[in-house]
Design goal:
The protein is an alpha+beta fold. The longest helix is centred in the C-terminal third of the chain and has 34 residues. The chain starts with a helix and ends with a helix. A hairpin with an 8-residue loop joins strand 3 and strand 4. It has a four-stranded antiparallel beta sheet with strand order 1-2-3-4. About 15% of the residues are buried. The mean pLDDT is about 85. The protein contains seven helices and four strands, in the order αββββαααααα.
Length: about 200
Amino acid sequence: MKWEPVALMVLLIGLGLWLVWGAQDMGVKPAAGAEVVPLRVGSERGVVEVVKESGDVRVRVLLRNGFRSESMTLDEFRARFGEEVAKDVSDGQSHPVLRMFNITSWGSFVWVLVGLVGQTAFFGRMMIQWIVSESRKESVVPSIFWWLSLGGGVMLFVYFVWRQDVVGVLGQSSGVVIYARNLRLLAKRKRAMANGSRTE
């Protein structure tokens, strides 16, 4: 197996992760030493900057579109955004894992795991197809490719529905039908070959 495709794959994954993590802070510059809690207001994303000094908590809303609220106390923040959001801010819901996956609770992490398992299945299908093709020195699509595609596609479809991501839902909904159809065609061919060998 050649090392260049593997190196290119690792490089592309690294670039994608860098772009995603860099985009999280795009246009949002919190104060040095401040904690940040992800915030979504309508279609706008940003963070709540939390500065804790000698028992006093001051917060500001920083959105990617450039909006910067004035510094306010936690009580003022609670009056504007409600008790639940204020609780997340005061509890410091800024765990690195929650920030990395752009979620606000550990309950949401279950859905992220569904998406990660689906994406792992998608990666696994391509890796297996690549290894089989390299070993045979020709392009081969083993049946496990279609099984991993179907399982990964269903999981990613569910994940994208939870994320309310129209692009992801559209991409996976058509794929799931194609993967299931290919598995049906493979089963039909296997039955026909089995029946043919019995009659010979």
